[in-house]
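User: Let's play a game. I give you a shape written as tokens, and you guess the letters that built it. Ready? Here's round one.
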């Protein structure tokens, strides 16, 4: 049985922004552990890490990925995160390179004081990910935890409004987004990035808390844009955007049960209640 969920208590979220190194799994896990311990010491109860945080992102070949990917929850990376979450009594969502049989997924794992909780596999693959990974086959699960109901999306999933709408309709209150955002075509480097615009809009239009943990740095010629952020269920930022280039940890305190109130815009309008399902399903 899942642990009882108490949506009414405040929850402190941390988004950890750092620079994983391609192929250096042990060093990446060491870097993660240092930052998770720091976030926990600062009061975080739910900690979000970037996409593919254990392996790095820009693979040269399928053979390289095969050397780095591990099973979830029995692989080295998953087991180390599970042990850390259990020791610190904290919930962790981290992107991981997953192998299942002979198939590879760009995945994220949720674990907590009770151990392994669940896995999400990225549904919408970006660019050269299509050469290495299969599209996720686990749907959009929502995990009941003592902190509230948690959903997960990864990077390019956030470009599809259906991702957040489906999670909201399934009862999610908090969406954790491990990500490796890259510059978009025609993006003004001085303007607000499209990723942040999209996730603020998703939070507002679905009444969801959304916590995005991006990476920084340039890997094999591919730059990443940082600017992690934590968004209120009204769509306004609670923390961030973080730095464009530097390591950072963002913190925000939310109350998951507040989504029901925040979805009521006034005495007549409710974000989900006003849906015209008779017209568009």
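Assistant: Ready! My guess for every position:
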């Amino acid at each position: 049985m899942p642990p009882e969920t108490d949506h009414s208590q405040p929850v402190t979220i941390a988004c950890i922004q750092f620079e994983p190194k391609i192929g250096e799994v042990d060093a990446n896990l060491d870097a993660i552990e240092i930052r998770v311990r720091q976030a926990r010491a600062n009061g975080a109860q739910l900690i979000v890490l970037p996409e593919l945080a254990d392996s790095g992102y820009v693979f040269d070949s399928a053979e390289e990925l095969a050397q780095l990917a591990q099973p979830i929850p029995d692989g080295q990376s998953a087991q180390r995160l599970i042990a850390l979450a259990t020791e610190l009594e904290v919930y962790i969502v981290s992107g991981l390179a997953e192998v299942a049989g002979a198939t590879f997924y760009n995945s994220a794992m949720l674990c907590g004081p009770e151990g392994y909780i669940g896995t999400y596999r990225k549904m919408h693959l970006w660019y050269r990910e299509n050469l290495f990974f299969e599209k996720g086959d686990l749907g959009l699960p929502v995990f009941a935890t003592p902190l509230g109901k948690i959903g997960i999306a990864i990077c390019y999933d956030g470009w599809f409004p259906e991702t957040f709408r489906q999670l909201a309709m399934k009862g999610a209150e908090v969406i954790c987004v491990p990500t490796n955002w890259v510059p978009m075509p025609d993006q003004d480097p001085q303007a607000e990035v499209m990723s942040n615009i999209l996730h603020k809009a998703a939070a507002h239009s679905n009444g969801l808390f959304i916590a995005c943990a991006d990476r920084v740095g340039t890997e094999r010629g591919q730059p990443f844009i940082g600017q992690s952020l934590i968004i209120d269920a009204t769509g306004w930022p609670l923390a961030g955007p973080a730095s464009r280039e530097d390591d950072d940890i963002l913190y925000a305190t939310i109350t998951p049960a507040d989504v029901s109130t925040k979805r009521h815009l006034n005495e007549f309008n409710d974000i989900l209640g006003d849906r015209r399902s008779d017209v568009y399903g």
